[in-house]
Amino acid sequence: MNRQNHFLFSIVLLSITILFYSTLTRASDDPEYGYNEKSAKGPRHWGDLKREWAACKGEMQSPIDLSSDRVSVMIPEFGDLKRNYKPQHATISNRGHDVAVTWEGDVGYIDINGTHYFLQQSHWHWPSEHTINGRRYDLELHMVHVSTQPDGTNKTAVVGVLYKYGSPDPFLSKLVNYIIEVPDEEEEKSIGVIDPSKIFKSAKMYYRYMGSLTAPPCTEGIIWTINNKIRTVSRGQVKLLKNSVLKYYAKRNARPVQILNQREIELYDPKAKNIPNY
Prior knowledge:
The structure is a single chain. The protein is built from four helices and 16 strands. By secondary structure, it is of the alpha+beta class. It has a single domain, classed as Carbonic Anhydrase II (Roll), CATH 3.10.200.
């Protein structure tokens, strides 16, 4: 084999090797579930993909449409949503299906009927998963809180914040550089001290209902609190989140709205004095 043919053979061999390993990489990147509704791994099939995900076919699933004709107006006994957060070190990670900020140690809690649910992490869905009177917003933040029970089990409460396109969100603005450099799936990057109390103001009006996690395993018995005040986020910020996980999932990571069944939706409104439930 002359030098020129040897060179060409080496190029072909290298190309085959690159193609082989890129194929393996794509296979390893194939997610366990997805959000493409036409896919065999799409939302309507989650409950059939694994036995542990059977709850995805349950009757108390999230998200839901927060429709006015299904809401009971309540006068809250405890007023505004009680939060007791404090600054704490946090990390950011690409979980494949979303970008998550996780706090280290005790970062504080929310108080629901006298029970403290301690903040663990927050993540985003685009577009929003919950809708209000049929309207789907451009982004939704989930702040996941956990309370450990006397028997050792955990109860989860999630606070949801909805966003429409407009001015940049201050919380995401602080994370721009970190999101650009967000590591590959299952890796974390330190982002310093983050104060959760700066993410959103205390909610004076909020929806509450019992639901589930919005992704597998779709565990039910989750207390949902959705802030009634719609915040703003820039298109660039949503695009940044979307591009960071685009190689793993579809262009959206929002589960379709689920059937409400016989569940109640409560709207806590301090101004709703003397207004009976309806």
